[in-house]
Amino acid sequence: MTLIEAKDYVTRKLKSADVPDYLLESDLLLCKVLGCDRAWLLAHGDRQVFDHELEHLNALIDRRCRREPLAYIFGEAPFYGRTFLVGEGVLIPRQETEILVDMALSFAKEGVVLDWGTGSGCVILSLLLENPSLRGIALDLSPKAMRWAWRNVDRFGLFDRVVLWHESARLPNKWGDHGLDMIVSNPPYIPTADIGFLMPEVRLYEPRSALDGGPDGTQWYGFLFKNAPKWLKRGGLLLVEVGGRGREEAVLSMDHFGLVVHEVKRVNNSVSIVVFKNE
């Protein structure tokens, strides 16, 4: 089998499984097996595929046809110009969440940032890598997510600047002597009843705890609004990603326990970043 034939073979398999972007993904799977880029793949269409490569390719195809996310199959995902390790038990970084990092960097010049619901650690680690004057706390309820965050802290050599906090007991009423400079969070915001309608890659594989925002999708915003005023120093900021149609209005109309809306940035038709100030 040549690479041209292999690409056609992979494409047909993925298309039959209703995989989105099956043409692109056929190239990506072949590149993963061969350790090459797409340009090399295109230029060497007559190259023969060896038996051991075909065996590896079929194993990846089977996983993708079961709609396992490509990021889980590859064990990594891009975020903010870097590659983060991901896998079963952790939310895959989304491109729109990079705007949360952009906004946090525009406000935070130094100090301590808490990433509530850190997942893979992509947000807090991106902040620390972009700004050497920041220190961080990466907090998550999930032990599986914490393991992925640990791997990424190790990957980027940031153990001297970030604390990994497994939220399995009562959280402190106050962080440090003076409080936090900033809290960033991409909390679960999908209404419980909507999870069953998500695409299979999300519904079947990504952790429900990172998706389920309660009956109306605002459960964890309420938790953050209640606790942020006692965690933040005066003048400190809470930045949250808000997703879903109509969710921005719902979040803005909630009790913010003294937090003041400082800025709202709409990323697209369904995602916003809302900044609150602790005055």
Name of the level-1 CATH class of the largest domain: Alpha Beta
Q: Could you name the ranges where pLDDT drops below 50 across 5 or more consecutive residues?
A: none
Q: What distance lies between the first and last C-alpha atoms, to the nearest angstrom?
A: 67 Å
CATH topology of the largest domain: Rossmann fold
GO molecular function, one term: nucleic acid binding
InterPro entries: DNA_methylase_N6_adenine_CS, HemK-like, N5-glutamine_MTase, PrmC_N, RF_methyltr_PrmC, SAM-dependent_MTases_sf, Small_mtfrase_dom
Catalytic activity: L-glutaminyl-[peptide chain release factor] + S-adenosyl-L-methionine = N(5)-methyl-L-glutaminyl-[peptide chain release factor] + S-adenosyl-L-homocysteine + H(+)
Enzyme class: transferase
Description of the structure:
InterPro entries: DNA_methylase_N6_adenine_CS, HemK-like, N5-glutamine_MTase, PrmC_N, RF_methyltr_PrmC, SAM-dependent_MTases_sf, Small_mtfrase_dom. It comes from Acetomicrobium mobile (strain ATCC BAA-54 / DSM 13181 / JCM 12221 / NGA) (Anaerobaculum mobile). GO terms for molecular function: nucleic acid binding; peptide chain release factor N(5)-glutamine methyltransferase activity. The chain has a seven-stranded mixed β-sheet. It has 279 residues and is of the alpha/beta class. The protein has eleven helices and nine strands. The chain folds into two domains: 3-66, Helicase, Ruva Protein, domain 3, CATH 1.10.8.10; 74-278, 3-Layer(aba) Sandwich (Rossmann fold), CATH 3.40.50. The model has no long low-confidence stretch (mean pLDDT 95). Helix 2 packs antiparallel against helix 4 and helix 6 (98-107) packs across helix 7. It has helices at 3-16, 22-34, 38-43, 51-65, 70-74, 98-107, 122-130, 143-156, 200-205, 219-231, 247-252; strands at residues 76-79, 82-85, 111-116, 134-140, 162-166, 180-185, 232-243, 259-266, 271-278.
